[in-house]
Amino acid sequence: MYIDTHCHLSIEDYDDIEKVIQENRNNQIDKIIISGCTKDTIVESLEFSKKYNDIFVTIGYHPSEANIVSDEDLQLLEKQIQFDKVVGIGEIGLDYHYGKEDIDKQKNLFIYQMKLAEKYHLPVVIHSRDATFDTISILKQFPNVIGDIHCFSGSVETAKEYIAMGYYLGIGGVVTFKNTNLVHVIEEIGLDSILLETDAPYLAPTPYRGQINSSKYIPIIARKIAEILNVSEEMVSQKTLFNTNQLFDFHSFL
Ligand code: NI
Fold first, then answer.
1. Quick check: 154 pLDDT over 70?
2. Average pLDDT for residues 212-237, to the nearest whole number?
3. Which one, of 251, 248, 253, 250, lies nearest residue 125 by Cα?
4. 136 CA to middle of ligand 1, Å?
5. How far is the CA of 63 from the centre of ligand 1 (A)?
């Protein structure tokens, strides 16, 4: 049994949501955590979580929204995160891949949402692209907050630094790509701090690379990690489920 700890689900990417949910159930996927990270997808994610038992959500404004988000949006977000099936805030963080023009806005938005996480005792899901140094310095300002470094792709040293701060690393389809340094990272850190994720509809694992991704491919990622560490898939399933349940609280809504 598996949980996809980070994916996106929107009618913009999938024609038939019911079919996606059913395929997940047929492929040992017990729950998925979908991330709403724009104004519209936050609302859409919350709606899906009300409709389907196996859908939980993290919500929060992605750094790419830094120029768009209004004060009213943020006030509403504070109300939205109090809904029971919200298990975390994210994806939030910093993205310098396309330039640094809005760096201050990105940092302010990130810090504002870290404060919400601290106030409501929620874990965070972090998006950090070409911004490791600044991400770590902001996370260090919030020693009471822990979370998931979504789609981790850094070095062994960076992995160890995040883990020492109490963070988990989200591992997805990239681990199945040729020449990825994630193989080395996983050999070094083992299963103790790993969460499984797809980031669907993006980053489908080999042999589906380039196609629309889906949570149903989580077992492919687990199989690859089992191969790297020379352990059983069952072991990867058990350990990553344990890690996921340590970080995210699925029970408070019951
Ligand atoms: Ni994502």
1. yes
2. 98
3. 248
4. 19
5. 11
- Tell me the average pLDDT across 191-195: 98
Compute, in angstroms, the gap from residue 188 CA to the centroid of ligand 1: 25
- Check residue 216 and report its DSSP letter: G
CA of 169 to the centre of ligand 1 (A): 13
Return the H-helix or E-strand segment holding 157: helix 156-164
Cα 7 to averaged position of ligand 1 atoms, centre (Å): 6
User: Mind listing the pLDDT tens digit for each residue in 49-64?
Assistant: 999 999 999 999 999 9
Which residue range is the domain that position 60 belongs to? 2-253
> What is the sign, positive or negative, of the torsion defined by CA atoms of 92, 98, 99, 101?
negative
Share of the chain above pLDDT 90, in %: 95
C-alpha 37 – ligand 1 centre gap (Å): 8
Tokens of 104: 């201050």
Q: How many domains is the chain partitioned into structurally? A: 1
Closest CA to 26 of 244, 219, 233: 219
- CATH number, residue 41: 3.20.20.140
| Whether pLDDT at 251 is above 90 | no
Q: Full-prediction pTM beyond 0.85?
A: yes
Confidence of residue 99 (pLDDT cuts 50, 70, 90): confident
Residue 190: C-alpha distances to residues 107, 230, 233 (Å): 32, 11, 14
Asked if 244 and 197 touch (Cβ cutoff 8 Å), the reply is no
Q: Which residues contact 155 (CB under 8 A, 6 or more apart)?
A: 181, 185
Beta carbons within 8 Å of 248's beta carbon, 6+ residues apart? 5, 33, 56, 87, 88, 123
Cα–Cα distance for residue pair 173/253, rounded to 1 Å: 30
